[in-house]
Amino acid sequence: MLKLKLKYFNDKILPAIVSRKFVVGLYILIAIITGFKQYYKGSFNNYKIFKYTYYHTINQQPLYENYPQQYDDSNHYGPVFGLVIAPFALLPDFLGTTLWNIANALLLIFGIYSLPLTLIKRSVLGLLCAHEALGAMLSFQFNVGLTGLILFSFSYLLKNQVGKSAIAIALGTLIKVYGILGLAFFFFTKRKMSFILYGIISLVILIFLPTFLSSIDFTKQAYIDWYSSLVHKNDLNVSLTSGQDISLMGIIRRLLQNPNIPNLPFVIGGLILFLSPYLRINQYKNLAFRFMLLASSLIFVVIFSTGSESPTYIIAFTGVSIWFVLQDSPKLNWIVVLYIFAFILTSLSPSDIFPKYIRVNYVQHYSLKALPCVMVWMVIIYQMLTADFKNYKINIE
């Protein structure tokens, strides 16, 4: 009887769960549930910030001021974001919030399915990232869509579609600076000059695009104000009580209860480690090496950023999950244990599954959500520096 049940599960249930239709449907369902739930709960402040970015742009009002009569906090996305959010801002909030989450969910899941991996690996990757995506969508964060843009930039570059890759990188960067990490894959294309040319053209067009909603003078000032807002935000992030700074530096600062510990030594050390695998030029041709660099980049940009908050970790956790699916099967015990540790502490810790006392007084207080990602990133760097990636078995479609 047990064998029959296992056979039924393997033959019917498992293929259905890892099918593209099921995984895409799951992401759409998560987007709808989180959108409606947060709207009817009245908890969609981030969406209000995004929405008013459009209205402030067309009315030529400062984009980075506080508007307490409209929303709490302030905007930190680039001026081009006013165009991105426009189709949603024009809708009633109950509809705009949900469609915004659906758009982000589709960007992420189709970004995952754009990767040159087998269908089952892409589906498993989507399932592994689903809970972290849910957490980000509860905050209506663009980090979900941004992760998708980064994955598209990687996939397009591998396919030598340099124009599409350049547009994805330029758009992601001009909305949220994290998008610039798409440049990490520059050496994987043979069309380097074309990529640079497309990148410059994309940047110029996207930088000036907001002028169609406002004016040249307003747009110019908006970019200056954006830079100032990011500098100011960085100063606020490093306080020991902020919801940001969930990073390697944040762990150290909060363990030692010293907000004055500087970022620079950590960032320099991190950059040296991050860049060191580039010295292994003979490994560039191996697809597994390229995927490991993708995983490394997605984690690096988050764990070394003072602006990282819980919803930002959809970017890093996607990197952790890519690293996990790349490992040969059957996977070594320590690899499985490390991934489970990451899934529990990084993905599940912000949820109600964790007791509130532990969540608040330990995980949040010491930025422990970052810890497993730091550990996985160190493993990735070690593997990238020592492994011969021609021996990695990556099946592609």
TrEMBL record:
Its main location: membrane. The chain crosses the membrane at residues 21-40, 99-120, 132-154, 166-188, 195-216, 263-281, 287-304, 332-354, 366-385. It comes from the Bacteria. Belongs to the glycosyltransferase 87 family. It is a multi-pass membrane protein. It is found in: Cell membrane. The keyword Transmembrane helix applies. Pfam families: GT87. Keywords: Cell membrane, Membrane, Transferase, Transmembrane, Transmembrane helix. This is DUF2029 domain-containing protein.
